[in-house]
């Protein structure tokens, strides 16, 4: 059984950011700063963190970054995590190195992959990422599908005036490569620069969802993913990821995160309540002592938007 916090939310999903480094510079990325490589956890430390989480009832794990495939020990990391026996082992990547690693990662025990890929236009890709890696990213998606990773999901952040006209082209590209298209609506942040960015590029999904509903052969709702809608169209699939009412997002949150330097991040939207796990590990704490630290972090999770608790 998964650990449950004091707001009766089970935690059965773990996200580990294994690096803050990246090989592209997407202009909408909000990294707080790039940690040097020396701060990153080793494969054995990542394995032990994963094992501690599994012992508390976590059954799904996702590796992210930065760009996780930038680590030259990524296959070893996946192999160690897969040995823990999670129900689902996944990676989120920009895809530029996926062509190189897809078959090795599948053989190591990776189940599925999400690829952040916003456009099929080379100039738009270069504008977004500041790099000329579009063919590498496309090849990564194709190689992941060919390697048997399933599902391959393509995460497309839809931005007004930049790529909103490419949605159906991207849908057909995904269909051709046995991938699922995830359309992601921009989330408004609190700081001034983000608000300006949001007002300039935000593409509201409502009219698009009406069109998808009309074209879909079937529509499903993902109950444990903030009631996210999945549209099945012409043997393809589109999933829409909208900024939900924040109380709903908090109420349905089943995830806990680990930062690249080994701190537990109980809430996606907060950085003032991080719990250090790696330093006690390096000081020789036992698995039971580390498990207590992990469970205490779960127990003390508070919704960022506390209205969801009913208090």
Automatic annotation (TrEMBL):
Q: Which HAMAP family match?
A: MoaA_A (MF_01225_A)
Q: Where is the Radical SAM core domain?
A: 6-234
The UniProt note on the cofactor reads as follows: Binds 2 [4Fe-4S] clusters. Binds 1 [4Fe-4S] cluster coordinated with 3 cysteines and an exchangeable S-adenosyl-L-methionine and 1 [4Fe-4S] cluster coordinated with 3 cysteines and the GTP-derived substrate.
Q: Return the EC number.
A: 4.1.99.22
Q: Which gene encodes it?
A: moaA
Purpose: Catalyzes the cyclization of GTP to (8S)-3',8-cyclo-7,8-dihydroguanosine 5'-triphosphate.
Residues that bind [4Fe-4S] cluster 2: 250, 253, 267
Q: Tell me the InterPro entries matching this sequence.
A: Aldolase_TIM, Elp3/MiaA/NifB-like_rSAM, MoaA, MoaA-like, MoaA_arc, MoaA_NifB_PqqE_Fe-S-bd_CS, MoaA_twitch, MoCo_biosynth_MoaA/MoaC
Required cofactors, per record?
[4Fe-4S] cluster
**Positions annotated to bind S-adenosyl-L-methionine:** 28, 66, 116
Please list the residues that bind [4Fe-4S] cluster 1: 22, 26, 29
User: Per the record, what are the reactions this protein catalyses?
Assistant: GTP + AH2 + S-adenosyl-L-methionine = (8S)-3',8-cyclo-7,8-dihydroguanosine 5'-triphosphate + 5'-deoxyadenosine + L-methionine + A + H(+)
Give binding positions for GTP.
15, 62, 92, 153, 255-257
Q: Mind telling me what this protein is named?
A: Probable GTP 3',8-cyclase
- Originating species: Methanobacterium bryantii
Give the family from UniProt: Belongs to the radical SAM superfamily. MoaA family.
């Amino acid at each position: 059984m998964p650990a449950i916090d004091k707001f009766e939310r089970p935690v059965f999903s773990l996200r580990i950011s294994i690096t803050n480094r990246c090989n592209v510079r997407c202009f909408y990325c909000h990294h707080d700063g790039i940690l040097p490589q020396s701060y990153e956890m080793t494969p054995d430390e990542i394995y032990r963190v994963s094992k501690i989480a599994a012992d508390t009832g976590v059954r799904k794990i996702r590796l992210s970054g930065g760009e996780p495939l930038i680590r030259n020990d990524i296959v070893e990391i996946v192999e160690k995590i897969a040995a823990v026996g999670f129900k689902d082992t996944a990676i989120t990547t920009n895809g530029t190195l996926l062509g190189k690693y897809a078959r090795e990662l599948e053989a190591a025990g990776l189940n599925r992959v999400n690829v952040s890929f916003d456009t099929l236009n080379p100039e738009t890709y270069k504008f977004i990422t500041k790099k000329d890696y579009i063919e590498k990213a496309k090849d990564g998606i194709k190689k992941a599908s060919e390697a048997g990773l399933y599902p391959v999901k393509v995460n497309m952040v839809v931005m007004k005036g930049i790529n909103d006209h490419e949605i159906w082209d991207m849908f057909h590209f995904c269909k051709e490569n046995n991938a699922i298209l995830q359309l992601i609506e921009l989330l408004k942040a609190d700081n001034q620069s983000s608000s300006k960015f949001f007002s300039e590029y935000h593409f509201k999904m409502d009219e698009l969802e009406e069109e998808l509903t009309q074209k879909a052969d079937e529509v499903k709702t993902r109950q444990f993913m903030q009631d996210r809608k999945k549209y099945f169209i012409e043997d393809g699939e589109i999933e829409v990821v909208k900024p939900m009412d924040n109380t709903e997002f908090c109420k349905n949150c089943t995830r806990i995160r680990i930062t690249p330097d080994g701190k537990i991040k109980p809430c996606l939207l907060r950085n003032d309540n991080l719990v250090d796990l790696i330093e006690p590990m390096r000081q020789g704490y036992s698995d039971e002592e580390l498990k207590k630290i992990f469970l205490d972090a779960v127990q003390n999770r508070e919704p960022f938007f506390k209205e969801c608790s009913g208090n």
